[in-house]
Amino acid sequence: MQTSFGTGQANRESTDLAFTDPLTGLGNHRRFFDKVDRLISDRADDPAPFTVGILDLDGFKPINDLFGHKAGDDILIQVAMRLRASMDGHSTVCRIGADEFAFLYPMVFSEDAAAEKSRMLIEILSAPYDVGDRTARLSASVGCSLFYSGDETTEILIHKAETALYHAKRSGRGRVVVYTREMEEAAKRVTRIEQALRRAVSAGEVEPHFQPIVDLNTRRTIGFETLARWTDRDLGAVPPTVFIPIAEERGIIGPLSQLVLRKATEAARSWPKDLFLSFNLSPSQLVDQNTGLHILAILDRTGFDPRRLEIEITETGLMNDPASAEKIVEDLRRVGIRVSLDDFGTGQSSLGRLREFHFDKLKIDRAFVSSILDDRPSEHIIRAILAMCEGLGMDVVAEGIEEEAQADRLVQFGCAGGQGYLFGKPVDADATLGYLRDSFRGALRAKAI
Ligand code: C2E
Ligand code: MG
Ligand code: MG
């Protein structure tokens, strides 16, 4: 027979279990909410603010995949130990998701102090982790919010910290962001754009525009890059630098891309057959094995010759999951689609990437071209890139050429391809046909002379 004492202990143990994360022994999300609830009621008569934060490990999933789940668990236990050791007597840290931790600092009263404390946590987590006889490194991002007034609930405070975390993640790895009201406005705007974009994609309202790519020596147009354009009836014209990242993040990029590629290949069918069509793929599309199938199905349906299609990808697109990207690229290349490396020289460039992957073409980023006339380092970098492309047997296109003098200098360095406002801005399918007719007439006139 159980004594009442025994039952009480069992109850307490099961309550403890309900509030504890079994892997790390830290409190779980229930414990965290409970602690914040209590602190809010304690502060009912005390105007002192306090801080909550959410910390998310950057790139934990690839580590888990690379080292295995057991090693992933070991790392999480080490992370938990470090976080616990860094808390003072007043503070609490809990594990509230797979690789997400939350902390509560009752004695941190200002945004600066919250950011400072968070940076310290990131620092502590950046030291190497033992995984068997190997070591792994991790970084972390943190979003914080401060409790200022009695009207705020635990849910609101945590939601604000999550919004701040979202901004931290968006701006790169290892960042700390403290919540501000403008962030909420920005988050609402993103949601508004997302909803309008979903509607536009299903109504077929995103249009391809085309920008000429020319042979710099003859100035003859050799192909066009497809650039997506979208005008919403309420939001107006939304630039691709805004809607493409939102489409990626919210899972709309696949259907959007298919719509634009279908319209673009339909338009390009009536162009002269020696012109190529170039098309941008987003990083998240190189993680999705259906991308290749979708592209091939569209080419099949519109009857566009795959040998006239080029896809442009960036180094970021290759970094997330190189094996997946390589498989997609190989599938496309097998049917004759060419592959360009876009925006070269920005982002996390790695020359090693050029050894692992074979690209048919490299596009030199506008940042170098725009400073070629007055910046010696840019000039040297462009010359080095051109020499490298020649050695590796890659074609080159310099992007963002706006002035004759820039084009001249590039020709002088031996750059064969160019693109930029000097030769033509991106325009819609009808205007592109007009442009082609004009260049064709020009060519005829030149012959007659
Ligand atoms: P990108 O692929 O590097 O495209 C070149 C960008 O430079 C385009 O901006 C183009 O309008 C702009 N540009 C071209 N020449 C000049 C110039 O002489 N001066 C200046 N200042 N700009 C020039 P846009 O159209 O705003 O597109 C921005 C980015 O959005 C593209 O960069 C590409 O990464 C992405 N994007 C556009 N359409 C698509 C799409 O259909 N799918 C995907 N995944 N991404 C797209
Ligand atoms: Mg491009
Ligand atoms: Mg580019």
Name the features:
single chain; Alpha-Beta Plaits; alpha/beta; binds ligand C2E; five-stranded mixed β-sheet; disordered N terminus; 2 domains; binds magnesium ion; 449 residues; TIM Barrel; eight-stranded mixed barrel
Structure description:
- With 449 residues, this protein is of the alpha/beta class.
- The chain folds into 2 domains: 17-179, Reverse transcriptase/Diguanylate cyclase domain (Alpha-Beta Plaits), CATH 3.30.70.270; 194-448, TIM Barrel (Alpha-Beta Barrel), CATH 3.20.20.450.
- The protein has 17 helices and 16 strands.
- The chain is elongated.
- The termini are far apart.
- The structure holds ligand C2E and magnesium ion (2 copies).
- Ligand C2E binds at residues 211, 226-228, 239-241, 244, 257, 260, 280-282, 312, 342-343, 366, 399-402, 419-421, 426.
- One magnesium ion is lined by residues 342-343, 363, 399.
